[in-house]
Amino acid sequence: MGSVPLKTSNSDGYKxxxxxxxxxxxxxxFKEGNTKLEDMKPVIVEHGEMKLIGIPxxxxxxxxxxxxHAKEGLLSSTKYFPAVRxxxxxxxxWPVTPSQSESDQHAYILCVEVDSLDDIPEWYFKSTLPPQRxxxxxxxxxxxxxxxxxxxxxxxxNGLVVDASGRKYTICERYNYxxxxxxxxxxxxxxxxxxxx
Length: 197
Prior knowledge:
Layout: H1 18-26, E1 43-47, E2 50-58, H2 63-77, E3 89-95, E4 107-114, E5 125-129, E6 132-139, H3 144-157, E7 161-162, E8 169-176, E9 181-185, E10 189-191
Antiparallel strand pairs: 1-6, 2-4, 2-5, 3-4, 3-8, 6-9, 7-10, 8-9
Helix pairs in contact: 1-2
């Protein structure tokens, strides 16, 4: 399976409507002691294998409303699951499928990371993502387009090769409600420059 083009900020005028809605909750909730990424500064983040549970949002029609309901559902329900690593850190993931380019079939899944998929109610989406390294750019104001531009520029300037590489899902963004807020992810890094492997 080759790489599948995913919706970006520039394709067919697509722009997530959910970023400002998430920021309403994030404002003023940074707690001392948390590690906060610097605004608009790209970093390479490495994740080991990630077990995720989440709530799907299907179709771009009223995506902001769907995202808001998924966010509230995760924040209220996952605090009761002992396996959840941090119910205040949400990952937005996209399935790697050609249907992503279709407005009515576009899928976005808002997730939290768990230590185990055992004892998670059956109605949650569940998946295990393989290890990955990505370029991550936080943007405190939730400016999706600006964060995308910095991610793309960093990838180009540093000769990184990024691709979905046969994955079922990729992380597109993260919301840290106790830290930097919104952060845009690149596709997984396949090749780093010499000496940084």
